[in-house]
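Input structure tokens:
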């Protein structure tokens, strides 16, 4: 079904920011050289523009009847112009494939039990699809790689056997995987199971570093749910139950900071970057919202600033998102509406 009502975007805390900006400028004028003041003012003033950044593409997909289960995740292949959707349900295909313009291409099931996260690795010579499986049956608690037609390629973890944090490649309800351009792999393992972990692996699956503590402190997690990496070497993790995003150095694993002030109402479920890395796109399931946050400059984490929001209808329940790095379109896998919603940038 389509979400009820329109989509509205608004600037959060606009009045507060408007009052704070002059004070910030005055403070900077007395404290730092002029050139730095101008750069800072330019950066902060861009948050003051109230405008709609995205609109719903009501024609995508062309035949939404192909969604027959609960749509948990979506992954985009920008090179082949394909969109992969993983869904759950009895006697439903677990993976659906659509074209960028919304045409249905194929469906496959294979060894997918209960998909949670999906990521498409794509280059000029080859593409593959990674899926995290949180099922409790013979295929679950694994991270699996498939060909684009659904043929199993390889499996990380022991199928059907949840594991503790003591064994790095033994998963318990792994939430999501992100593969960097150089082949490095990042996995958040902890969709409610025993583990609360962030792992970085080489492309041949050797552990480079990991954080594996359950808690509320720095570099500790309570349901790490989504992960992405930016071009300046920062790893962004949606720490769902702690209602924050934590940031790490991708080379060393060092903790760089955390954002929490934007998530008082609901924790972040998903995190992705826009192609120009100006914004982070964050889904918040319980308040039916996709928040657009200003990405901080290099060398600074600070705290989060909401630039716009996409307020979806009640009970849509956006779970995980992906962004087409070529077109900038946002795809939102929504459990409640049981479909994927596409939003296209207006500029």
């Amino acid at each position: 079904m389509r979400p009820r009502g329109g989509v509205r975007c608004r600037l959060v805390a606009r009045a507060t920011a408007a009052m704070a900006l002059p004070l910030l400028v005055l403070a900077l004028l007395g404290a730092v050289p002029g050139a730095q003041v101008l750069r800072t003012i330019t950066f902060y003033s861009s948050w003051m523009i109230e405008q709609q950044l995205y609109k719903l593409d009501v024609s995508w997909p062309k035949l939404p009847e192909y969604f027959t289960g609960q749509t948990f995740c979506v992954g985009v292949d920008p090179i082949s112009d394909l969109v992969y959707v993983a869904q759950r349900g009895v006697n439903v295909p677990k993976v659906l494939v659509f074209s960028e313009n919304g045409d249905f291409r194929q469906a496959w099931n294979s060894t997918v039990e209960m998909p949670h996260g999906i990521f498409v690795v794509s280059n000029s010579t080859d593409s593959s699809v990674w899926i995290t499986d949180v099922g409790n049956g013979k295929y679950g608690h694994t991270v699996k790689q498939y060909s684009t037609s659904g043929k199993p390629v390889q499996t990380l973890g022991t199928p059907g056997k949840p594991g503790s944090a003591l064994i790095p490649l033994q998963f318990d309800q792994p939430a999501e995987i992100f593969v960097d351009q150089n082949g490095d792999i990042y996995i958040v393992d902890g969709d409610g199971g025993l583990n609360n972990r962030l792992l970085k692996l080489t492309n041949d699956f050797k552990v480079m570093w990991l954080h594996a503590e359950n808690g509320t402190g720095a570099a500790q997690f309570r349901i790490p749910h989504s992960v992405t990496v930016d071009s300046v070497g920062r790893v962004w993790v949606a720490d769902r139950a702690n209602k924050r995003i934590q940031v790490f150095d991708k080379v060393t694993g060092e903790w760089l900071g955390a954002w929490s002030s934007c998530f008082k109402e609901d924790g972040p479920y998903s995190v992705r970057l826009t192609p120009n890395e100006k914004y982070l796109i964050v889904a918040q399931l319980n308040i039916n919202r996709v928040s657009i946050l200003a990405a901080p400059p290099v060398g600074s984490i600070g705290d989060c600033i909401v630039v716009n929001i996409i307020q979806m209808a009640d009970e849509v329940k956006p779970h995980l998102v992906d962004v087409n790095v070529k077109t900038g379109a946002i795809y939102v896998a929504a459990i409640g509406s049981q479909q994927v919603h596409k939003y296209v940038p207006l500029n």
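Residues 3 and 72 are 16 Å apart (CA to CA). DSSP finds two helices and 26 strands in the chain.
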